[in-house]
Amino acid sequence: MSRPAASSPFPTTRPTNWKHLAPPPRPGPTFAAQAALPRLPVPALADTAKKLKESLHPIAWSEQEYAEAAAKVDAFVSSEAGQELQRRLEARAAEPERPHWLEEWWDDLGYMGYRDSVHGFKEHPSHFPKTPLHRAASLVRAVMLFREQYKLGQVPPEATKEGPICMDTWRWMFDCCRMPGPTHDWAVTHAKEGDDGRSGHVVVLHKGRVWKLEPWQNGSLLSLDELQRQIQHIYDNTTKEYPGVGILTASNRDVWFKDFHALAEDPLNASIISTIHSSAFILCLDSESTSSLDDVSRQLWHGAHGPQLGLRNRWMDKPCQFVVLPNGVAGFVGEHSVMDGTPTATMCDRVLDIVASPAFASSSSETKSAMTAATDAARTLIDSQSLAVVRTAYGKALIKRLGASPDGWSQMLIQLAYARLLRARGEQRQGATYEAAATRRFFKGRTEAIRIVSAQSDAWVRSMDDAGAAREARLALFKDALKKHGSDARAAGSGLGVDRHILGLKMSMKAGEPAPEVFADSVIKRAAYWVLSTSAIYTKNFGPYGWGEVVPDGFGVAYTAGFDDFLQFTVTSRTEMPHAEFCAELERAAEDMRAMFEEPATKSRL
Fold first, then answer.
1. Whether pTM exceeds 0.85
2. pLDDT, position 116
């Protein structure tokens, strides 16, 4: 990319109506249920206070500390300040022009902080060549076919057993990009109203070089053979390493904002950036291969960690990036600021089903300096991370035969492992655990927190290492813990959790108003300090997937409980954390939980 010559053509401040600039969807089944979806409720203040106090007890370090925190909650609920904040929040939720009281706040506070997720795909269908060329072409063609169905409103909407769920965030899946801002980022869509999906380009990244691939020609999608020829041309004509400008997108967002506009001062650079931003999605053709679950997870996450850093071959602001390794291994990287993991998981599943179906046949010195700094920062970040994949010897089939919820079982397994890790390190304090609950049954719903740590889970965890606890007592406590988890999960999914309501109350305060004492309480803060950030996604086509920890002394635990023969946990943390020890405790907890059901009733197992 050449030397800057003019000011950047991209906006430096976020439009106030940025989210309304996405075009409305076409009529069709995909969005047919939107108008009937209810609004996200505002929970009753007393109900949230009760749940909050329940969640504090196992987190408090003493009965006195708990009593003081609970007293602050009660005082807040009965105070005029608490009642007034609740009235303001209810009034906001009732505004006709505001269909979702949390959306604007949560976009900035919850999602415009950088997050990414990684999904590793299963092997290419056996009747296809196991080549990266064929896999890349198959993905491009299948994604474009799916995108066409979506643009025409023909994609079946997502639903749960309770009914349809909100599809609004799907508008940000294709033809979009995150834009760095001076204080807050935003998303920009290049989709056009009425688009039938029979046009649009793909950006292909290989060895740091940016290619524009146009799969649609005169309204017809190129054949698989023709797409292979196009991608082979990219392989054949990218014989050297190019400046890996993509590494800049992995920088700190303030640094990227500055580098972005310096880069875009040159008209040619600005044109290339526009091509990337407006692409339907990105195809990353990596130059390095790996095959183990741990290494595949790492490579999809940040690319290979060799002399040429794999992040040169990513553009982390794009919502959808498909990655293909030289050995044919493939996966997906998603940017989560405007769209959660479940829509992209559904999209990937349907794309891979299409593939498997029988019918599917030179740079300025300033930019160089910025890239060097970004590469150094990325290497430091990558080197600071530990990652491993833990698979158990049994899965959903056994758990359901034992009469338990696979999701609840997985959460209790994590609790037992973490408690043992703490005990082995001489700590007795339990840490807060976040599990994501989807609230997409509501219009524009996203997520709520399930507070996993409860008095019931704590009692069961303690019993598992109590030599005097009988098997029957442990099973009874386990049943109580699962029942509590299920109740809390249903409440969170119904918009009746604790954390989003508390956020809404805080955000309802006016400038200059004194903050209620309850918001500064140490136990209440500790109960939302997510040392374990967990969530589950299951699709038949994913192998490894995951994300990073959310606090410096915590773990990210992405898990899947949907396979019959194994549970899978992708564990991430900083390297200074006892990562290997925690993974070992997960394996031990899995076996001890199975033994709890299988051992003779007269035997007590530690």
1. no
2. 44
